[in-house]
Amino acid sequence: MSSAVTTSLAHRVPDLGALELLLAVARLGSLGGAAREMGITQPAASSRIRSMERQLGVALVDRSPRGSRLTDAGALVTDWARRIVEAAEAFDVGAQALRDRRDSRLRVAASMTIAEYLLPGWLLALRAGRPDTAVSLLAGNSAAVAERLLADEADLGFVEGLTVPTGLDSVVIAHDRLIVVTAPGHPWARRRRPLTPEELAATPLILREKGSGTRQVLDTALGGLARPLIELSSTTAVKAAAVSGAGPAVLSELAVREELSMRRLVSIPVADVSLARDLRAVWPTGHRPVGPARDLLQLTRS
Predict the structure, then answer these.
(1) Are 266 and 182 in contact (CB under 8 A)?
(2) From CA 282, how far away is CA 289, in angstroms rounded?
(3) pLDDT band at 297 (very low <50, low <70, confident <90, very high)
């Protein structure tokens, strides 16, 4: 087998810059003029042409006091070079179109608490810097967010569970705490002592559905839960049920600030248990966010 076959194509074909230089020499009839157009010195241009000639094994340019003229072989190589450069220009235009398409849209998947109480402010800030980016939001529980990302249906996700779903990388963007709340008329609102973890675990609660980060944190902290009093698929629905007096609920502090300040809900202390959790941005492993997804990630941490 010949060495030409075993040697990499990259070693046998001149690089794109050298081919562009040869085309400039052919068009301008001057090595010095070609060097100026390419933004390099004439000695550097001359050295590059000689290196290309050694690589190809043929003379490409005749140099004289009157200028530089292509040899017959040089004219043929120039025709081939033109096709390569045109193909490279088409490649560049296509790649730019892909970048433009990527940068013109952002698909976000977020768990309910983050989607309802944090994401709107981040998206407003993103719009100020990227007014032409179209944003779509997919809200669901943490398990659904992971599914969207792994199916390439979202560019960036936000979850609130204890663990990072398999197949995703993450970074902590904020901290949160779950609290037990009831309507002011509930018996717990008149308690003088904090609830024990055992009491809370044994009480039917208004809960989010399985797969939600809120429920995962609570279940893990208590070592199990009673059968839900009501199971609902959004933070807003759980909060509304608690405000109506349907029963106690466990919700993010972020979600109930207004209701607590207006006394529509009352916070019930719980002894000897931590309900703190991290809020995370997530993305598919090995695919660090780029473009508007990267910008949104930076906004969440500023």
Answers:
(1) yes
(2) 9
(3) very high
